[in-house]
Amino acid sequence: MSYFDGNEFFFFLTIALVIGFIINYLGKRIEYYILALSLIFAGFIYGKNTTMLSYLLGFIIYEYVLVEIAQKIENKKYLKVLVVLSILPLIINKVFAITHLHLLAFIGISYMSFKTIQIMIEISDGLIKDKINLVDYVQFLLFFPTVSAGPIDRSRRFMSEIKERMPRTEYLELAGEGVYRLILGLLYKVVFSTLSYHYLVGLGTHTSFTHSVKYMYLYTLYLFFDFAGYSLMAVGSSNILGVRTPMNFDKPFLSIDIKDFWNRWHITLSTWLRDFVFSRVFMEATKKKRFKKRLTTAMYAYMVNMVLMGFWHGLTISYIVYGFYHGLLMAGFEYYQKKSKFYKKNKNETWYKVLSWFITINLVIIGLYIFSGEPYKLLSHVLKK
């Protein structure tokens, strides 16, 4: 059994959500039920592999010790050390994944790492003032709708919400939205994603330009429907349990520029990176006067931000190049916005928005083609001839 995959999972999910609906409808406290559900699902899914389960338990203990230290230290200069120590298991996992040894490999390690780092940074910033105990930490980390592939929630929002009793009318409206999102997510993942994948596989392996173009567009459709479908099911399930998990997609293919795209695609990851990487790299570079101009500093911060995004996905060449590619797009668009008189003169014109949309979407599709790893398969095929 895996999260949001297979008849067995959805059978137990249906029972869990019906009981959750009844608890919320009656106005009872929901947090302990959610914790029990998360532990039960984790037991079924991680427990089938004792190695994965031991990695998960070790990771939780290790990371919580770091959170405890973050809550006790007063000197902010130690925060960087804690962040490095926190992300170390993920780095080890990514490095060994290349050799297929899968050390420290378990479902959701990337998302759990970012959740933990968020907690420690916000403790250091003084945004989290209340002590985070082990139960709260496990509750946040293993919240079953989002543990596998997000969306990446924020601990303050999550913990305050599961402990409040939502008015019945407000809950019923949220639960109705949840049912709609859950059904739409199933449609995306089971029907549209499957169809896209079927046609993608049917393309076979060729080296022609036409094949590459077809692959780019089909892969984009497949990836969107697969991931957006998963995210919708995660958000929908959360809503039925009375939790407003943030949305991860907002009509990304209507984006009129690359910044607009990253405000619509994998939203919780891009906002996490904006808040905890881009803004801090920008402030540090400004403070240390690494560059003379503010524009150059912003471009540098975008490059760091997006390259890190690529490494977060994995240490394969396709992911790293994908991050670098989007770093160039974001930095280039920042320069274009600030320096181009043509942009400033025409940015509100309808024809310009249409043209900008067309260029943006095709640049995004090229990026996802890089992400797929297909260009390197084709290159290897050509070199072998």
Task: Explain the overall architecture.
- There is one protein chain.
- This protein is mainly alpha-helical and 385 residues long.
- The chain has 16 helices and no strands.
- The longest helix has 35 residues, at 168-202.
- The protein is globular, with a radius of gyration of 22 Å.
- It starts with 6 loop residues before the first helix and ends with a helix.
- The model has no long low-confidence stretch (mean pLDDT 92).
Q: What number is the mean pLDDT? A: 92
Question: SSE string, helix = H, strand = E?
Answer: HHHHHHHHHHHHHHHH
* Share of helix, binned: over 70%
Helix tally equals 16
Total strands: 0
Global structural class = mainly alpha
Cα end-to-end separation: 42 Å
The largest β sheet comes out as:
none
Give a brief outline of the structure.
By secondary structure, the protein is an all-alpha fold. The chain is built from 16 helices and no strands.
What features would you highlight for this structure?
16 helices; 385 residues; mainly alpha
Write the topology of this structure.
Layout: H1 7-25, H2 31-46, H3 50-72, H4 79-98, H5 109-124, H6 134-141, H7 155-162, H8 168-202, H9 209-240, H10 258-262, H11 267-287, H12 294-313, H13 317-339, H14 341-346, H15 350-372, H16 374-384
Helix pairs in contact: 3-4, 3-5, 4-5, 8-9, 9-15, 11-12, 12-13, 13-15
